[in-house]
Amino acid sequence: MDAKIRVGNEIGNGDDVTVVARGLVKRYGDLVAVDGIDFQVRRGTCLGVLGPNGAGKTTTIEILEGLKTPDGGQVEVLGRSWSENRREIQERIGVQLQETEFQDKLTVLELLRMFRSFYREGSDIEEVVRTIGLLEKRRARVKTLSGGQKQRLAVGCALLSRPEILFLDEPTSGLDPQARRRLWEVIEAFKAGGGTVVLTSHHMEEAERLADDLIIIDHGRVIARGSPKAIIASLGAESVVRFSLAGADPRQLSDEELRTLEGVRSARYEGSEISLSVVRTQAAIAGLFKLIERRGLVLDDLHTHRPTLEDVFVSLTGKHLRDD
Predict the structure, then answer these.
(1) Residues 26, 162: one domain?
(2) How do residues 134-193 score in pLDDT, each as one tens digit?
(3) Whole-number Å distance between alpha carbons of 182 and 184
(4) Same domain, 199 and 261
């Protein structure tokens, strides 16, 4: 895949702030979907937005994109407001929605030419086709493309204006691992060229790889923010120990029992498993074995791993990212 991506004509230094959200609020009747969200995004970086389904992340992104009007707060995109500079902002951003319905009978080139006609200036269509890895499919009708190819085409449409900011709402949802990594390369190349990316994702690996900064949203509020490394470190654990019991409900071991084990910082029940955040792994496992033996239980499975973004996410929200 050709990864050369040119970004708009007004790129400044890497510390420039390109997106600002101040106290965003969005209500739907009695439901407060977005409840006082604040953040900013720097040029040449990627902000990852994570949250369980219904947390308010897509609504937040749609406000930034100008698709929804907030009930409170302010948005600045490239130093401009949607109320006063809508057309100017539209010319300088690229948007990929969760779901995009294309005209199936058009070819890839025809579709890209149509989208390119919406802008006064923009990228070379052949360059975009190479960037998204659809050179061999450029004369194929859209209806013949696989799901992954359509996702790449949607990102290609977002690149046509030679944007300075890309808003990507779950761009790799439903893609196989190879197709996902091809899209990651496109996003990384855009960022390396000085572009800004605002990304929602259901893939923790994706967020850790692409995002310079993260915010985790739940019930319309930001509950954690920082770099992936800093958020993982906030768990305060050396490792995570997960185990299950043979033929027994894991809740036969109480939370109090588990948390009093040497080296255990916290305990969490997840279906048939128990997850322990520990600060001294060997001491915690030794204490766990003694506890299980003393209680007359049998260990079914045990494994350890270094803390991940998923562990922090579950600890904060009580859900895995893909939970409905």
Answers:
(1) yes
(2) 999 999 999 999 888 888 899 999 999 999 999 999 888 777 888 888 889 889 989 999
(3) 5
(4) no
One domain for residues 54 and 189: yes
Q: 240 and 115, same structural domain? A: no
Q: Tell me 214's DSSP state.
A: E
Taking only the tens place, the pLDDT of each residue in 255-291 is 999 999 999 999 999 889 999 999 999 999 999 999 9
Our count of domains for the chain comes to 2
On the question of pLDDT at 132 being above 90, the answer is: no
Encoding tokens for residue 6? 């040119």
What sign has the CA pseudo-torsion 198, 123, 131, 140? positive
Asked whether residue 213 falls in the same domain as residue 243, the answer is no
Domain that holds residue 261: 236-306
- Alpha helices, DSSP H only, in the chain? 57-64, 82-92, 108-116, 125-131, 147-159, 177-192, 204-210, 228-233, 255-259, 281-294, 309-317
Residue 174: CB atoms within 10 A of its CB come to 12
Among 232, 263, 282, which residue terminates a domain?
Answer: 232
Integer Cα distance of 166 and 65 in angstroms: 10
Cβ burial, residue 188 (10 Å; 0-12/13-18/19+):
middle
What the block records as the tokens of 217 is: 């949203």
- CATH code assigned at 222: 3.40.50.300
